[in-house]
């Protein structure tokens, strides 16, 4: 299976990162492929399904937002493409072992420690 230049091996994850708030249908439409074909090519080139890659990138951005001081779970969920807070919470627990609130508390504690030092 050959990939179009938009999802060449070296740029697959970078490309998906630029559109991670969209779903798999949007990504397949972008390259004018069926969702099934796109998923097969993406899986072959990256070793993970597009949905898993999208979720991983959403979690990375959410963690960065938390580390940057954002504390509204609803806003973070909306900004990162999760449908709602509960979906984001489940993704955090599944991938990171803790809900987003725990990361927010850790970030606040870390920021407080920096201010006190």
Short structural summary:
This protein is an all-alpha fold and 117 residues long. It has two domains: 5-48; 52-116, Homeodomain-like (Arc Repressor Mutant, subunit A, Orthogonal Bundle), CATH 1.10.10.60.
Which strand-content bin applies to the residues?
Answer: under 5%
Note the total helix count. Answer: 7
**Number of strand segments:** 0
Structural class: mainly alpha
Rg estimate, integer Å: 16 Å
What is the average per-residue confidence, as pLDDT, rounded to a whole number?
82
Order of helices and strands: HHHHHHH
- CA-to-CA gap between the ends? 56 Å
Number of domains: 2
Unreliably modeled segments = 1-10
CATH superfamily of the largest domain: Homeodomain-like
Instruction: Classify the fold: give the CATH topology of the largest domain.
Output: Arc Repressor Mutant, subunit A
Work out the helicity level: 55-70%
- In CATH, the architecture of the largest domain is Orthogonal Bundle
In the CATH scheme, the class of the largest domain would be Mainly Alpha
Main beta sheet strand tally, sense and closure: none
Shape field? elongated
Organism: Massilia terrae
Domain HTH araC/xylS-type: 27-106
InterPro entries: AraC_XylS_family_regulators, Homeodomain-like_sf, HTH_AraC
Pfam families: HTH_18
């Amino acid at each position: 299976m050959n990939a179009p230049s938009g999802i060449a091996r070296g740029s697959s994850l970078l490309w998906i990162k630029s559109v991670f708030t969209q779903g798999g249908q949007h990504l397949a439409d972008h390259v004018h492929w069926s969702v099934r074909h796109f998923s097969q090519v993406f899986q072959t080139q990256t070793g993970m399904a597009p949905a898993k890659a999208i979720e991983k990138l959403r979690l990375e951005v959410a963690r960065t937002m938390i580390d940057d001081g954002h504390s509204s779970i609803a806003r973070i969920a909306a900004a990162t493409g999760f449908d709602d807070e509960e979906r984001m919470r489940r993704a955090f627990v599944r991938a990171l072992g803790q809900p987003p609130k725990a990361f927010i508390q850790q970030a606040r504690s870390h920021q407080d420690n920096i201010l006190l030092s």
